Amino acid sequence: MNQNSIQKLRTIFDKALDVLAWIAAFILIGIIVSVMIEVFLRTFFNRPQEWVMELSEYALLYITFLSAAFVLKKEGHIVVDLVTCRLNVKKRNFLAIVQYIVIILVSMVFIYVGGKTTINNYIRGIYSPTVLQIPIAYTLVMIPIGGLFLLVQSLIGLWTYCGKYRERTIPA
């Protein structure tokens, strides 16, 4: 595969991450609006909507896995840099490589266990024992999907930081 093809795939992947982040944002807006309506109905009309809490829980799972790879791409996850800010660039790049390897391993667990559990629940036809009675597989399917996007973004990050690490270790 030549460099141009890789760049095109990376552009497509980046656009997909952007779309997933926008979907997560719209889901978040939906949660906010539905909870506001729920509070209003419960407070002023004493008519709580039983489905709001359940749907919000499912939506939070979707938001997490839809946006994780996007946030990783932007390097926007929370970082405690009390120690790392005191390290030189080479050591920080090495720690970033270790970080991406750990994320890759976790992503593989999300894909394998999440996929296996989703398929198992789908085959068995398991529903949530709640008001909405949504098939659990429809809820869990986002875990392996999000894990796949996180895995790909982690591989991109690992490749990037391996290059940065090599640049710093090659004598000029």
Key descriptive features of the protein:
172 residues; mainly alpha
Descriptive overview:
This protein has one domain. The mean pLDDT is about 90. By secondary structure, it is mostly helical. The protein contains 5 helices and no strands. Helix 1 packs antiparallel against helix 2 (about 50-75) and helix 3 (about 90-125) runs antiparallel to helix 5 (about 140-170). It has helices spanning about 5-45, 50-75, 90-125, 135-140, 140-170.
**What's the alpha carbon Rg, rounded to whole Å?**
21 Å
Unreliable residue runs: none
Structural class: mainly alpha
How would you spell out the order of helices and strands?
A: HHHHH
Secondary structure: number of strands: 0
Distance between the first and last residues' Cα:
29 Å
